[in-house]
Amino acid sequence: MDNKTNNLSHKSIRLFTNNTLERHLLIKIDGEDYHYLKNVMRISSGDELFLFNGIEGEWKSKVVQITRKYIKLEILHKNREQINYTNIECFFSPLNNNRHNYIIEKLTELGILSFTPVLTSYCNIRKFNQSKAFLRGKEAAEQCGLLQVPNVNEMIKFNELLKQEFKNKILIFFDEESPLKNPIEIINSLKGKKISFLIGPEGGFSDIERASILELNNVVRLSLGSRILRADTAAIVSASIIQFTFGDI
Amino acid sequence: MDNKTNNLSHKSIRLFTNNTLERHLLIKIDGEDYHYLKNVMRISSGDELFLFNGIEGEWKSKVVQITRKYIKLEILHKNREQINYTNIECFFSPLNNNRHNYIIEKLTELGILSFTPVLTSYCNIRKFNQSKAFLRGKEAAEQCGLLQVPNVNEMIKFNELLKQEFKNKILIFFDEESPLKNPIEIINSLKGKKISFLIGPEGGFSDIERASILELNNVVRLSLGSRILRADTAAIVSASIIQFTFGDI
Fold first, then answer.
1. Domain count across chain B
2. Residue A150 shares a structural domain with residue A190
3. Measured between alpha carbons, how far is B151 from B236 in angstroms, rounded to an integer?
4. What average pLDDT is seen over chain B?
5. Does one domain contain both A217 and A135?
6. Interface of A with B in 212-231 (CB under 8 A)
7. Where are the coiled-coil regions (chains A, B) (predicted)?
8. For residue A6, is pLDDT > 50?
């Protein structure tokens, strides 16, 4: 399936950086990325790798120095122009055993670029490690050839979700109590709109929460079918259906 | 999202059994299931749980005895009639770190009931733990409310896949080198047909393998888009698209 992944991870390493990318610039890689390049990928002087910063496209670079603290790269030339992706925002509930990181990884592969954890009544996870989740998304973006890394926002409480402005966008609410309808047909009718979607916690939403969501403006309530899907499965299924229906493939 | 999962796993335990299910029968649960009921679910005498055997529907039963080796259940009454699901067969390549078990778990939730691992040239996993994979599917079927557990077949070599009879069914081949087409539209046109689908290994198919697949009869070649998906993501996305397009939700 993913021959390309293989090529990318073993032959062409890709790295997200906050640096400006410009021909002949020299940049230093330290911290986690230094460890990854040196100890995991066993990079050597002269090796080439790709860099992207979410703004200026993808650039080829060459290792010019490896010290005990950093790796120095020289930027050679631009390899791909920047792509600006459709921003589909995902609201989700944190899951047991950090399984929400799995959601971030898989949904990044599927092109979702904004994640906001929402604390609901039946959610038994109260802490969310934002930087760990960001790293999971960054790594997925690097591996799957994206030219942007996803935003992982701070956790918000359910009431703050209700205060969100859905005036200019649609919130797709995948609700297990929604009557069965063909989701593909309905999502098809939303083409051209700004889309966000909401995935509930393991324990589901409370009746009060469900009612509050349905009272919001611009909410589309959809069913994921008669099957009982775990929250992480539901997230991947939702993102697949939205992306494939929108034809953003 | 999965309020129902919660109910099922904490309030209504479901268990697959090979026993005949009939009113007033007494049956013994031992082995792994005994351990699960006693030590994980901490079941007590008088507790009720659901049983299904893939043939005779779902039955309510009551714990009548708990010994140090087994739990005895009395079958009370039928709760749901047997459902016979559409059999969509998944061929996949074994993945590193047993990540194929994740494919089996998620695809079971999505209603796929037959799994056959295929050994290909670029696949670096040569052993496949069939019973572990079966247990993963059984557990998913128990948790997601299915009335059947999936078959997990023995691993076959790529050449045996080619000998498979696709005369009476379609093989959907998700091929990263396929030109971009709208997969939903094409799958839609296959309604009413018997479907199987093939997910490649991490390293992709070799050129010879790809050519041999495309030479088979009744193969539909589809793209999962321009994104680079890992093999496990590709599997879930494929199953979602097939199930939702077929409307078997």
1. 2
2. yes
3. 18
4. 89
5. yes
6. 223-231
7. none
8. no
**ipTM confidence score:** 0.79
For A182, name the nearest residue in chain B, comparing CA atoms only. B247
Residues of chain B with C-beta less than 8 angstroms from the C-beta of A6: 122, 202-204
Owning domain of residue A52: 3-80
- Single residue among B57, B80, B103 that ends a domain in this structure: B80
Amino acid sitting at position B83: I
Given B80, B100, B135, the domain boundary residue is B80
In the stretch 2-61 of chain B, residues with CB closer than 8 A to chain A read 2-6, 8
Q: B11 pLDDT exceeds 60? A: no
Interface contact A137, partner B, CB < 8 A:
no
Same domain for B107 and B67, yes or no, is no
Rounded to 5°, the CA angle A205-A181-A168 comes to 65
Residue A123 and residue A26 in one domain: no
Least Cα separation, residue A66 to chain B (angstroms): 30
CATH of the domain at B123: 3.40.1280.10
Q: Give mean pLDDT, residues A218-245.
A: 88
User: Residues A61, A174: one domain?
Assistant: no
Torsion of CA B105, B108, B112, B114, to 10 degrees: 70
Going from the C-alpha of B79 to that of each of B7, B21, B44, B75, the distances in angstroms are 16, 11, 21, 11
DSSP assignment of B127-144 equals ---HHHHHHHHHHHHHHT
Q: How many CB pairs under 8 A join A and B?
A: 171
Tell me which chain B residue has its CA closest to the CA of residue A222: B1
Whether A211 and A237 share a structural domain: yes
Angstroms from A195 CA to nearest CA on chain B: 19
